[in-house]
């Protein structure tokens, strides 16, 4: 046989909570000693079972509430990650577009560079041909001068000498 205080101590709850449970469930004391009500084992088991059921119900309710909170948080995280993924995909598409534009610019510059190189080669060839012609003209002019000098040296009166 145990008192309300002893049962409350075993359950880890207040005496008042045990007393309210007893009144609510119409549990009667087996005996009374010095104004303390004593409860037999069957009453004690009913009280403990009631508190365990309440505790399980509260835990279950808490778990349901916690699961709801977890689901809400999970949904928020998923939505945040989805938005972030969309943003990253948009950034990647923009980068791809920029890369294609740079590739196009590089191709144009390479074509221009190739054309400029061909023009430089043509200019060098033209310069070499021009120089060669100039040298030939110079040589021809020198030969003509030499020939003129020889002709001058051979005046008609010098033929008789």
TrEMBL record:
What is the protein's given name?
Answer: DUF536 domain-containing protein
For this UniProt record, give its keywords in alphabetical order, as a comma-separated list: Coiled coil
Q: Which residues form a coiled coil?
A: 75-112
Organism equals [Ruminococcus] torques
């Amino acid at each position: 046989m145990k008192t309300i205080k002893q049962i409350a101590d075993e359950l880890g709850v207040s005496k008042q909570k045990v007393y309210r449970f007893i009144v609510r469930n119409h549990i009667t004391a087996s005996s009374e000693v010095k104004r303390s009500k004593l409860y037999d084992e069957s009453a004690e088991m009913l009280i403990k079972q009631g508190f365990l059921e309440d505790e399980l119900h509260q835990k279950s309710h808490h778990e349901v509430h916690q699961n709801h909170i977890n689901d809400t948080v999970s949904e928020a995280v998923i939505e945040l990650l989805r938005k972030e993924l969309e943003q990253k995909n948009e950034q990647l598409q923009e980068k791809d577009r920029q890369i294609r534009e740079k590739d196009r610019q590089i191709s144009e510059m390479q074509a221009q560079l190739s054309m400029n190189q061909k023009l430089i080669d043509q200019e060098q060839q033209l310069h070499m041909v021009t120089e060669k012609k100039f040298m030939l003209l110079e040589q021809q002019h020198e030969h003509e001068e030499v020939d003129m000098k020889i002709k001058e040296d051979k005046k008609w009166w010098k033929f008789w000498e």
